[in-house]
Structures are given as C-alpha cells and as structure tokens.
Amino acid sequence: MDRKNQYYPQSIPHPGNTLREKLDEMNMGPKEFALRTGKPEKTIITIIKGHSSITPDMAVQFEGITRIPANFWLNYQRNYDKYIARKSGSI
User: Is residue 5 part of a domain?
Assistant: First the structure.
C-alpha cells in the first residue's frame, strides 16, 4: 500500500473522552453507568481515563444505555488503537 497518499491524523482521542462527554450530557456518573451496564465501576473509570479499551461486549452494553451504536464504539476503539500503533512505530 502506498503510504505517502494516506492521511494520518496528528492525534486521535481515546474513546473514553466521548463516553465521558456522553455521560455528562446524560447527567450520569460512572457509578450509575456501571450499574446500568453491569460492568465494574473501576472498568468504566479506566475507560473514561483512557487507560482501558472498549471491548465488543462493552460496546453492546454501551449502545443500550447511550443509544450510540456499538459499531461506533468499536470503530472508534480500532482507529485509536491503530493511531497508537503508528505513533509507537509498530506499523
């Protein structure tokens, strides 16, 4: 693949930023969101802080609460992971 004609953004925020913004918009804290998704509060907090990834299972749970499609969360995580890999020189 010809890389010189590819666009690579300078930065991509972790999907936890979008989750935090959505929770703020919904007036919901991590604890309530954790209860509604059935995930540990610590897991939700580590995602919001950008220290943990959103898994397919989580994306489906998030969709049910946020009404943001699971594919959005999964694509966002995949793009973030590719950005990190490029930044670290892995690809």
Answer: no
In Å, how far from its chain's centre is CA 50?
8
Return d(Cα 75, Cα 53) in angstroms, integer: 12
Asked whether 14 and 84 are in contact (CB, 8 A), the reply is no
Token couple for 61: 């749970």
Please state the domain count of the chain. Answer: 1
pLDDT in tens, 6-62: 766 678 899 999 999 999 999 999 999 999 999 999 999 999 999 999 999 999 999
- The residue segments making up the domain with residue 67 are 14-88
Could you tell me the CATH number of the domain that includes residue 53? Answer: 1.10.260.40
CA quadruple 88, 58, 20, 32: dihedral positive or negative?
negative
Backbone dihedral region for residue 81 (phi beyond 0: left; psi -120 to 50: alpha; all else: beta)? alpha
